[in-house]
Amino acid sequence: MRLDVAYDGTDFAGWQYQPGLRTAQQELEDALSLLQGGRSLRTRSAGRTDAGVHARRQVADCELRTHLDDARLKHSLRCMLPPDLRAQALRTVDAGFHSRRDAVEKVYRYRVDSTSHGNPLLARYALHHPHRLDRQRLDEALRRLPGRRDWSGFTASSCVIGQRVRTLTRAEWREPEEGEGYFVFAADGFLTHMARNLVGTLLEIARGRMEPQRVEEILERGDRRLAGPTAPAHGLILWDVRYPNDVERAHRADASVRARGVP
């Protein structure tokens, strides 16, 4: 089964199973286990998200033994899951499907509330950052980011992945209305805290505390100490996970939206 799920990460200790802690993976697996008579199972996912990080679309897969068809299975699963975890789509796929290895692009958004008072409706989903952002400096820094690079300088010290080269295809700032905006990052993969470290550094640049060329220095030297602070988790959303059949279509849609100036 392939499952496309969304969750509010506020009350989860992340996606991945952790003994004694509430995680999105554990909640999903508990529900799926009941649907196959209580037999335990393990899901794979397109990637991990940290505690407090949300997902508009996380993709998981598992082997499930049930007499229910896809439609009835999706309905049953939705009834069993908690309100902060939803199954958006579910379907039977080829046994060779692998949610992580088959993914070709992941998209993250990071929301920022720059109003002076702080919008209470965004408090769980956006960083309150009541400071003026210098768009010229910010845009210059963003232009320097895309490419195939070693992202060690924007990676947490806790990262255990040795191969840290990734291809970042998009780094943008969008501001659909005054006082509310978000960063967009798209890449073939992300390292631990990579998106949040990028945000923390870019906000420092936009406030005039660092120069735009600092991002290149961080990339060249691979020194996390040169970057800005790690932005809080609650502003980050795993927006999309794309596979070969849908990535080209998604890119055309993104290009059309940007051409029309739609945020």
Layout of secondary structure:
Blueprint: E1 2-7, H1 24-35, E2 44-45, E3 54-61, H2 70-80, E4 85-91, E5 105-113, E6 127-128, H3 135-143, E7 147-150, E8 165-177, E9 180-187, H4 194-206, H5 214-221, E10 236-242, H6 244-259
Parallel strand pairs: 3-10, 5-6
Antiparallel strand pairs: 1-3, 1-4, 2-3, 5-9, 5-10, 7-8, 8-9
Helix pairs in contact: 3-4
CATH superfamily of the largest domain: Pseudouridine synthase I, catalytic domain, C-terminal subdomain
The counted number of beta strands is 10
Order of helices and strands: EHEEHEEEHEEEHHEH
Helix/strand class: alpha+beta
- Tell me the span between the first and last alpha carbons: 34 Å
Short description:
Helices cover 26% and strands 25% of the residues. With 263 residues, the protein is of the alpha+beta class. Strands 1, 2, 3, 4, 5, 6, 7, 8, 9 and 10 form a 10-stranded mixed beta sheet that branches.
Describe the protein's architecture and organization.
By secondary structure, this protein is of the alpha+beta class. A hairpin with an 8-residue loop joins strand 2 and strand 3 (54-61). It has six helices and ten strands, in the order βαββαβββαβββααβα. Strands 1, 2, 3, 4, 5, 6, 7, 8, 9 and 10 form a ten-stranded mixed sheet that branches. The mean pLDDT is 92. Helices cover 26% and strands 25% of the residues. It has helices at 24-35, 70-80, 135-143, 194-206, 214-221, 244-259; strands at 2-7, 44-45, 54-61, 85-91, 105-113, 127-128, 147-150, 165-177, 180-187, 236-242. The protein folds into two domains: 2-91, Alpha-Beta Plaits, CATH 3.30.70.580; 105-259, Alpha-Beta Plaits. The chain is globular, with a radius of gyration of 19 Å. Helix 3 (135-143) packs antiparallel against helix 4. The two termini are 34 Å apart.
